[in-house]
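Per reviewer request, we include the raw input and output of the structure prediction for the construct analysed in the revised manuscript.
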Amino acid sequence: MRIPFGTWTLLRDSVNLAMDAVPNGLDRAKVDAMLRGLSGVADVHDLHIWGLSTTEIALTAHLVQDPIHADTLVQLATAKVRERFWIGHATFQIETPATADRCDLRPANVV
């Protein structure tokens, strides 16, 4: 019984990797909420999470900053997603509220 279960798990993980799906056990909504709750983050959009392998996870997101916290926002966000969600490869694009309003990737329906 272990072999079929292990095979199914490997097949599912392989399909998820091929489809750039959010890895099993990781809740995209929780990552989004955590980023929105960081000091200095006014908004989050264009959030993508996918597996690089069965053990490595990547993330990209646009963070709209509160200008007062601009100096430390990337370091804080990177540390928090690594610490809380084990996401080791995070890339953040920082935007001001004015540039975020003009961002073509801001609407929720844009992938």
